[in-house]
Amino acid sequence: MSEHLHELGAVRLRELLASGELTPVDLASAYLARIEADANASGAFITVTPERALARARQLQDNPEAGSRRRDRLSAPLWGLPFADKDLEPREGVPTTFGSRAFVGYVPEQSSPLVATMDAAGGVSLGKTNTPEFGLPAYTENAVVAPALTPWGTGRGAGGSSGGAAAAVAAGLLPFAPGSDGGGSIRIPASACGLVGLKPSRGRVPDGSGVGSLAGLPVSGPIARSTADAALLLDGMIARRADGRQADRSALTAPAGERSHLDSLETPLRRLRIGFNTWSPWATRYEIDLDRDVAAVFEESKEHLARLGHQLVAFTPPDAPDYFDAFRTVWQAGAATIPLEGEALEVLEPLTRWLVGVGRTKLASELAQSLATLADFERSIIEQYSRFDVVLTPTLAQTPRPLGWFDAVDGERNFEQQCQFTPYTSYVNVTGLPAITMPAGSALGLPVGVQAIGRPGDEATLLQLSNELEREINWSHQYPPTW
């Protein structure tokens, strides 16, 4: 049975754990064996922690009450399920590099709040997934380990910055994985790897809410092979005590009065009014071209949704010429806070050095004006999109890029290439709206996703729509050649 566990999906594995047909140790051992056999050819991991993982699995297994159906459903939604921390999330006692040579050898003494919540939800961490330096680029090629690859093509990158997480799930090395998304960093690699990737609303995931960060851009969310698995992981990531305090193993529940996202998939989806466009605010300064083969998949997706009974309406927002400078200023200013000085900066990769260098020249008045501009943009897009239940766009403008395609020296050119590859994702972070990428087809044998943007706080509708489209085209039962 262990040879095929990776094909079952997290929801089914959870059922087997709850019934006692499968133990946490058996499951962790099976995935660790796959990771060992992979020998990081996928570039999915920066660090693997088999001893810690098995010790954690035994700890769960030795608690006879922890695997009961009631506890599994209400108290520990991820009980016994393997995952891995993105290497931007510190875990006490485990090396954390942030994807940078500057932090090789760093071992944090305290875990991040998200790591603590994942543990409290019953998960078993197998290690740290690969990420580009400080999570800044839209591809996962760093100077620490091998690049993260999509298993669907030879020499094609997995995207970023949650590229290691997506590569691990797509290669069957994890059933699902948490990621973070500041400009598309969940949706980009999920699309490149043929997976579901959900960027929740700002504030939805308490330990990766975006609230308090610069412009509220980065949030944490799930990456999975199926919509149901993504919903289950989201439930684990937001599991909190009813009194709002940090979750612990003894009392994890969904928020009072709120159905779990997994349970919400049982509700039939109503007929939706779906707007669609291929608009990008980057088009005012960069040439944005949607690949013909990617555009064809987008058209097919609209046809599927129309056949499912939804109303599709073309809608294109007006140009937003101030977006370009405002977003770049905020992105550069964020990089400027990286805690390195003097000669230590020379260890950074060229793109990061460029972002840090430019960011540290920005005046407070420039940053304040840029934040105000993005706030105006947020209000405008939310108002314009409010006439729809969902807005559909491509996730990426191109298929997964070959390794080395992004300029490794010229920061300006590199940034332009990233925007041309991912022109539809970053503006959703600015708005704080939820968005999901759904596997929708393939171009030249490579996966293509479509993005659905929802109303504030309405992850449930996005997951229901994704589940409906998944059943229509049966994507969760399509496997890359490496399987």
Q: Report the top-level CATH class.
A: Alpha Beta
CATH architecture: Alpha-Beta Complex
Point out poorly predicted stretches.
Answer: 69-73, 241-256
Sheet with most strands: strand arrangement: 4-6-5-10-11-9-7-8
3D shape: globular
Secondary-structure class: alpha/beta
Which H/E pattern describes the elements? HHEHHEHEHEHEEHHEHEHHHEHHEEH
Task: Give me the number of helical elements.
Answer: 16
What's the CATH superfamily, by name? Answer: Amidase signature (AS) domain
Structure, explained:
The protein is globular. Strands 4-6-5-10-11-9-7-8 form an eight-stranded mixed beta sheet, sandwiched between helices. With 483 residues, it is α/β, with parallel strands linked by helices. The chain is built from 16 helices and eleven strands. The protein has one domain (2-323, 350-477): Alpha-Beta Complex (Amidase signature (AS) enzymes), CATH 3.90.1300.10. The model is unreliable at 69-73 and 241-256 (pLDDT under 50). The two termini are 15 Å apart.
Summarize the structure.
The protein is of the alpha/beta class and 483 residues long.
Task: Please specify the SSE layout and strand pairing.
Elements: H1 10-19, H2 24-38, E1 45-48, H3 50-61, H4 69-75, E2 82-86, H5 113-120, E3 124-129, H6 163-170, E4 176-181, H7 187-192, E5 196-199, E6 219-224, H8 227-238, H9 261-264, E7 273-276, H10 292-307, E8 311-314, H11 323-335, H12 350-359, H13 364-385, E9 390-394, H14 411-421, H15 426-431, E10 435-443, E11 446-454, H16 459-473
Parallel strand pairs: 2-3, 7-8, 7-9
Antiparallel strand pairs: 1-3, 4-6, 5-6, 5-10, 9-11, 10-11
Helix pairs in contact: 2-3, 8-16, 11-12, 11-13, 12-14
